[in-house]
Amino acid sequence: MKAQPGRLRSIADVASTKPRSLPARAGIGLKPEHFREILVTAPDIGFFEIHAENYMVDGGPFHHFLTRVRERYPLSIHGVGLSIGGEGPLDERHLDRLALLLDRYQPESFSEHLAWSSHGGAFLNDLLPVPYHAGTLALVCEHIDRVQDRLKRRMLLENPATYVEFAASTLAEPEFISEIVKRTGCGLLLDVNNVYVSCVNHHRNTHAYIRALPLDDVAQIHLAGFAQDEDADGAPLLIDSHGAPVAQAVWELYCYALDWVGPTPTLLERDNDIPAFPVLFAEAQQAERILCRLQPNRAHEACA
Amino acid sequence: MSSQSAFAEALLAEEVVCPPGLATWNGSAPGKRFAVYRNNVIVSLIDALADSFPVTQELVGEQFFRALARQFVRAAPPRSPVLALYGDGFAEFIEAFPAATGVPYLADVARMELLRVQAWHAADADALTPDEIARLLGDPAALPDARLILHPSVRLLRSPYAVVSLWAAHQSESAALALAAVDPAQAETALVLRNVLDVEISAIAEGPATFILNLQQGVAFGQAAGQALAADAGFDLAASLGLLIRGGVLAGVEFPGSTHS
Fold first, then answer.
1. Has residue A272 been placed in a domain?
2. Which of A40, A107, A266, B7 could cross-link B19 (Cys pair, CB 3.0–4.6 Å)?
3. Nearest-angstrom CA–CA distance, A293 and A295
4. Which DSSP string corresponds to A262-284?
């Protein structure tokens, strides 16, 4: 279907063709500063993604606008606070809130992180790293089983960007992730920027890392920008800042990953220093053009 | 201590410490790498407070605010991943913060900004339509016993300081100029409500404040108006109703023995 610029697609059109999964197109993170512009200009975007926790409030403008955006676009809900890698039990109240949100918005995709963010009742608001060994593997799998059981759906797990490793780790990250996918049946959200950041930070080969992942189970891709620093010995230390355009090296790695996984819904993430909507749209178009090259028969203006 | 306990403790510790058990590919000291996490945690939580308390920040300047917020984040990290509502206890923390005693109204401004955030995200409720309001007011026999339901966003703050005027001055283009005209020691009661999609804040007199508080507690219309008049001889019932109607927060009405909204 070729969307007509400037014309709102009717709700009936979307409802009658509502996909059960995200389209293999580029999506953008939905930000409150862009709510009105999106509804007025109806940009031709494959999907929008929200952070679940931002919408775990009773009512008000966030729900007002999300409801309207959701009527017009496929939606991905991405959790940042479930603390799946936490040592303690999952927060059942948080799972309840997630269940309520997913029930309300019926997103095509739900994803969370291989990380922990809460400890001892405190929420630390960062995606913190997990050692990779048999004990943590069992715990993470138990948590993912519980999530999928409670939410009655398959979740996607995102590979992390990390800055340190653990002496206690006995498994490489892709092996750890492969084992999780095998045991729980969850899908993989392949964050290509995170692959790049972690491989630079831990001196690993990005192509080998990607090839070691369970690529048949990749259901979504994330792209984002990073910031650059150095470790104590002056080696490069990249920081997953979500505050910059996607780096050229990450675009190249994205193309490499697509050669293995085929056309895959791809989100452009920007959570800090959020630019005007057209800047994000242009970045999404860049991903869209790359996706189009893999789908030569697709009728879409970005593919022309 | 579990490894995550040590990690979490080091994230929030005032002194720079590095948890045990970290490894780096090149054998570099892991402290600088761990500091990325420390920074992410502390800075993102300070940013969350700065988003929710913009006028509190403007009143004392960014540098002071961030130093204050940093201490609060360490002392009282969020208990929930729903960060939109983070900030419970921030006003009380400011009150007890020795360096902030020179700005005695700061805590109440923060208190009001928290109410603003709560109103922003409060549950939705449709306002009564003009027809429904006309029917309600057109039945003087039933009106005194009616219970008016206010929108869930409605909140009040009684302050010994001019919290609304201070806040309003910071909404104007020339905040410094507007601020110079405010006497902070003037007591004000703030009415915070969400009118469709926008939160509105206004200063109200003791009469309407008493009226609204009574309505929120489920007191019948006639009795609430009587309480308001007792508290404030100048209470103007029509004006108070107008305030609620214009604000879109008259959300329902119940009569004893039946419901109607």
1. yes
2. B7
3. 6
4. -S--EEE---SS---HHHHHHHH
With 90 as the cut, is the pLDDT of residue A3 above it?
Answer: no
pLDDT tens for B92-145 read 999 999 999 999 999 999 999 999 999 999 999 999 999 999 999 999 999 999
Cross-strand pairs, A229: A237
Is the Cβ pair B41, A168 closer than 8 Å? Answer: no
| Assigned domain for A223 exists | yes
CA distances from B52 to B41, B77, B238 (A): 17, 15, 34
Range of the domain at A113: 11-303
Name the minimum distance, in Å, from the CA of A209 to any CA of chain B: 16
Rounded Cα distance between B100 and B93, Å, is 10
Total domains present in chain A: 1
pTM: 0.93
- Are A183 and A214 within 8 A, CB to CB? no
Count of all residues that appear for chain A in the document: 304
Is the Cβ of B217 closer than 8 Å to some Cβ of chain A?
no
Tell me the average pLDDT across B31-38. Answer: 97
Cβ pair B48:A117 closer than 8 A:
no
Tens of pLDDT, residues A191-250: 999 999 999 999 999 999 999 999 999 999 999 999 999 999 999 999 999 999 999 999
Q: Give the number of C-alpha atoms closer than 13 A to the C-alpha of residue A195, restricted to the C-beta side.
A: 28
Please, are residues B172 and B58 in contact by the beta-carbon 8 Å criterion?
no
First to last CA, chain B: 57
Give the pair of three-digit tokens for residue B190: 């703030």
User: Is A6 among the domain residues?
Assistant: no
Closest approach of A289 to chain B, Cα-based (Å): 33
ipTM over 0.90: yes
**A39: domain CATH number?**
3.20.20.150
Written as six digits, the tokens of B236 are: 């103007």
- Cα distances from B214 to residues A235, B195, B199, B244, in angstroms, run 65, 21, 22, 14
Chain B, residues 127-186, CB within 8 A of chain A, namely 152-153
Look up residue A109 and give its two tokens.
């995709």
Q: CA-nearest residue of chain A to B18?
A: A164
